[in-house]
Amino acid sequence: LLHAESEANRLRGLELMIEARDTWLPQRSPSLVPLATVCAARESARHGDRQIALDQMRQAVSDLRDAQRIGWIVYCTATLVESLIDGGDDDDLQEAEELVAHLGGLKQAAIIDVTILRLTALLAAARGDAAAYRDVVTDYRQRAESFGYQGHSEWAASMADRLELGSTPAS
Q1: Which is more confidently placed, 92 or 5?
Q2: Which end of the chain has fewer surrounding CB within 10 Å, N or C?
Q3: Measured between alpha carbons, how far is 170 from 85 in angstroms, rounded to an integer?
Q4: Angle at Cα 37 formed by Cα 35 and Cα 43, nearest 5°?
Q5: Taking the model in full, what pTM does it have?
Q6: Are 37 and 60 in contact (CB under 8 A)?
C-alpha cells in the first residue's frame, strides 16, 4: 500500500506500517523495527514531516549498522538517500553522497554495487550533471542486466528513457 498510486491507499499503508512498527514488530520481530521505521518515515516525508522523517531514517540506519544487518542497511540507506535527494539542498546532497560512500565500504556484493550505481545516477541528476548521469545510468543498466536484477533493469531502462527524451529526473 505504501507504493500504491492512490493517496488514500498510501495513507492506509502508512497507518498499517506504523501500527506494525509500534505494536507487532517489537515483540515478534524486533530486528524489523528499523525497516518499518524507514518505510513509514519515507511516506511521512512525502506528507510534509520531512525533517522528523529524515531523523527517524538516520536513527534506523544507524541502528542497522550497529546490528550489522547488511541487507537492510543497503535498502534503508538507499531509501534515506532518495529522501535526501528529494529535498535537494546542498547539505542534503552532501549527506546523501556520504551515505553512498558508506555503502561502498560494505562487503562487496552485486546488489550493493548496483544500488550504488543507481544512487550515484540520482545524485548526478540532482546536481544537474547530465554527462555523469548518462554515464552512470549506462553502467547501472549494464550491471543490473548482467546480474539479472529485473527490478533494477527496469529502473535503469526508465532512467535511460529519460535520457532519450532529453531530460533527467532533476529536470
Answers
A1: 92
A2: C
A3: 10
A4: 110
A5: 0.87
A6: yes
Structure confidence at residue 51 (pLDDT): 92
Residue type, 104: G
Cβ partners under 8 Å of residue 64, min gap 6: 34, 35, 72, 73, 76
Gap between the Cα atoms of 1 and 88, Å rounded: 26
Q: Name the residue among 102, 101, 165 with its Cα closest to residue 133.
A: 165
Q: What count of other Cβ atoms lies within 10 Å of the Cβ of residue 52?
A: 12
* Helix ranges (DSSP H) in 29-149: 33-46, 50-67, 70-87, 90-104, 110-126, 130-147
Distance of CA 156 to the CA centre of its chain: 14
Residue 169, pLDDT > 80, answer no
In the structure grid, which three cell numbers stand for residue 80, read together? 534515506
pLDDT at 2: 66
The grid coordinates of residue 30 equal 524486533
Cell numbers 553522497: residue: 97
Report the Cα 52 to chain-centroid distance in Å: 17
Contact 106, 132 (CB under 8 A): no
What is the Cα–Cα distance from 42 to 50, expressed in whole angstroms? Answer: 8
